[in-house]
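Exercise 7. Given the encoded structure of a 154-residue chain, write a plausible sequence.
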């Protein structure tokens, strides 16, 4: 009986080595993201999405009775027009209301919480949710792909 050794063995085993390397890389490449406030019984975790670099520290939102409201007027005081300084922080567990007003029709998306809203031109669109995940979350326009607000949950 002939045994595979030397160069012949190397030729036949390289596909196995490649498959093992790919499998190991896939096991270790979780981005840790989860969506929303599902009821799967698991504890919410920190979201590590590719966060937008900011030009200033987070400004704490006013929290009264566990609730915070953040108003954003697109084109006037949003993240892009303020040069990256529209960064607001809230404590974990806060009931958050974000009111977005834009001169044009918009589609908004709050990353990490996977919340979406549509707004008619000149109308206010409202996000309401509990900040149950820590991290930095970008609220963006689907139309312009610009960041409008960065929310930091601590």
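Solution.
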């Amino acid at each position: 009986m002939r045994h595979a050794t030397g160069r012949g063995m190397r030729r036949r085993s390289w596909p196995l080595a490649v498959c093992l390397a790919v499998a190991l890389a896939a096991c270790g490449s979780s981005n840790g993201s989860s969506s929303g406030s599902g009821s799967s019984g698991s504890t919410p975790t920190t979201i590590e999405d590719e966060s937008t670099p900011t030009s200033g520290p987070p400004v704490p939102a006013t929290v009264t009775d566990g609730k915070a409201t953040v108003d954003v007027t697109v084109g006037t005081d949003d993240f892009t027009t303020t040069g990256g300084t529209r960064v607001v922080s809230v404590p974990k567990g806060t009931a958050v209301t974000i009111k977005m007003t834009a001169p044009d029709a918009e589609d908004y998306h709050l990353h990490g919480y996977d919340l979406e809203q549509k707004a008619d031109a000149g109308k206010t669109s409202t996000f309401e949710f509990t900040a149950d995940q820590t991290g930095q979350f970008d609220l963006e326009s689907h139309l312009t792909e610009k960041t409008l607000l960065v929310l930091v949950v601590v």
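Remark. Strands lie at 59-60, 63-64, 67-73, 87-90, 95-101, 106-110, 115-119, 124-130, 135-141, 147-153. Students should compare their own answers with the one above.
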